[in-house]
């Protein structure tokens, strides 16, 4: 498809696509904190709890980069 093989399309979807969704999730968490008037500590807790799932994905990318895969 457009000169790309399956591996290149999967890499693009997993890095760029999921990364874009993660940035959108950060926006949603921030908006949720703003609308609920959570304050500084409440905002920190929201980002910690709701954003914790993104840590694994970012760690995976950093580990692959460090190994040089």
Concise synopsis of the structure shown:
Helices cover 86% and strands 0% of the residues. The protein has 69 residues and is mainly alpha-helical.
Ends: how far apart?
25 Å
* Largest sheet, strands/sense/barrel: none
Helix and strand element order: HH
Secondary structure category: mainly alpha
Low-confidence stretches: none
Please tally the β strands and state the result. 0
User: Count the helices. How many?
Assistant: 2
Rg value: 16 Å
Average predicted local confidence, pLDDT: 88
| Percent of sequence in beta strands | under 5%
Shape: elongated
Helix content: over 70%
Task: Explain what the structure shows.
The chain is mainly α and 69 residues long. The protein is 86% helix and 0% strand. It contains two helices and no strands. The chain is elongated. The two termini are 25 Å apart.
What's the topology here?
Elements: H1 6-35, H2 39-67
Fill in the keyword field for this structure.
69 residues; mainly alpha
